[in-house]
Design goal:
Strand order of the largest sheet: 2-1-4-5
Number of strands: 10
Helix content: 40-55%
Shape: globular
Distance between the termini: 47 Å
Largest sheet: 4 strands, mixed
Number of helices: 21
Strand content: 5-15%
Length: 455
Amino acid sequence: MGLSQMRKQLRLYPDVSCAKVHRDIRSEEFIASYLSESSTGQVRLMESILERNNMKRAIKRVIKNKGAPGVDGMSVHKIKRYLKRHRSKIEQALLAGTYSPRPVKRKEIQKPGGGIRLLGIPTVLDRVIQQAVSQVLNQIWDHTFSEYSFGFRPNRSQQDAMRLYREYVRGGKRFVVDIDLSKFFDRVNHDRLMSRLATRVKDKRVLKLIRSFLTAGVMVGGLAEASDEGTPQGGPLSPLLSNIVLDELDKELEKRGLCFVRYADDCVIFVGSKRAGNRVMENTSRFLEKKLRLQVNQEKSAVDRPWNRKYLGFCVTNSCKNPKIRIHWKSIKRFKGRIREITGRRRGRSISQVVSELKAFMSGWWNYFGITESFNRVQPLQHWIRRRLRAVIWKHWKNRRTRVGELLKRGVHSDQALTTGCARKGPWRMSKVKWVQIALPDSYFRSFGLIFPWT
């Protein structure tokens, strides 16, 4: 930390001692410690948000996350140049409390299980400001959240949530209360959220800015629609706001002494019997609907055995003594659907291009699902994927002459090459034929770098 920077922070935070400033700590840690200890810092929160290093981190994060342009059409690559020209004007508007966000751009995403998820894409500038706000508010709020909340929090992940899920089952919890919130992000009550924020945020400019993001509206078909409730999915601030809303649920469950895991709006509660599960389901649903004003999806919510439920794409094996984490069959189905797209035989891509795309997808997929402890659902995928690739190559060999010639070149006897190459079966059926497998062995695909991450 340079001398000029320390002097600036001393002017900004007059009630903090020089000794504290001289500690060799990062800027964000200085802000976090100051905000948690100083009442003055709470009413000067906007200055902390606009602190240079905090803004640099926000810009870097937004650019790294990429994302589509908002209603103004600006891409993430133009934000640095834009801020160089307009930074002082934007900062003045934020400090004066007059900044007005643009409406979010509506985007519809198909859910894997059916239905539509509505995303709201803010402009890149609004994303940077939201990210800067989120970084500072996280320092104020995160340490107050429950130990059993894992969604959108530093050093916590879906895998950590699933490991705790498994430990509860190992501990003898034989029933799970799976609560599904219907369109949670679209139904957050603004007044309740703002009153909750005001308990820790005293800077009225920050509160006004957050409310303006909530009520900025949605651009649909060129027309702006008002938003009276909900936090638009797609903005950097929404995950933190969702945790602040559902922290009330966490505290209520802790007060009742219940075992639970929550990742964003996916909450499961563990009990010892179905009777206890039904009681917990009724009481928790009442709390969510009456107090938090959220809607529970009764069709998708259930009291069931933990190995029958899907949680974050996983489940556990049906073993009383030693349950293991396993990939849910629906996640395997989605995986196979994506593989079918990549290995489509009408895409007009070379086998090296197909394998390269496969490797990238499987690597990312396994980075998430690699904590599985049961491999009986992933091991058969290797043979299936190689068969898909053999079908692609067979399709590339467009006519009988080419097929016979390729089989001969790859060591298949002339009689078998002629019979196989002249067969009238389609590529998928031919990919299972012995002589095609001999011509295109596993080692052939390994030569393109095809290695399965779970082997």
